[in-house]
Amino acid sequence: MTNIDRAVKKGAGDLSGNNYETIIYEGYGPAGVAVIVEALTDNKNRTAADVRHAFDKNGGNLGTTGCVSFIFDKKGQIMIEKDVSIDEDELMMIALEAGAEYINSEEEGFEIITDEVNFQAVCKTLEKENIKFASAEITMIPNTYSKLSAEDEKKMQKMLDMFDDNEDIQEVYHNWEE
Question: Is the pTM of this model over 0.90?
């Protein structure tokens, strides 16, 4: 089988034996920004090299497991766009009674934070109350944030763009205060 035939079959999902793994990489971006990269790959050597390259090229470095994960908490995050029909106090009561930890009121909407266990219950309660949300996901929320100089912001954005361009990388979490 030629490489081209194998690539076509792989792309079509016809090649058996593909073993995809989820791998979590941790490291530091420019000026010590904490970064977690979540990848789904069938070739961990290639993905590790790509991730290391993105860190190295932009003033960061790939770290060891656990080097930055302590800075993040895995939480449910529900975003609701501001709407005149939504009463902030009523939304707060509904969400907190359903198990939300807290609610942030922002200019463009509301951010509801839950622990992983109560995430689905809060989502279902909001749906029952006909409250539509812009997004709802389990994510990694940093405990502290890092500010960057204009030069480091450019490096950080370039690194994030490199991660975004890599099809193996599913999610990137960081504590850069944008």
Answer: no
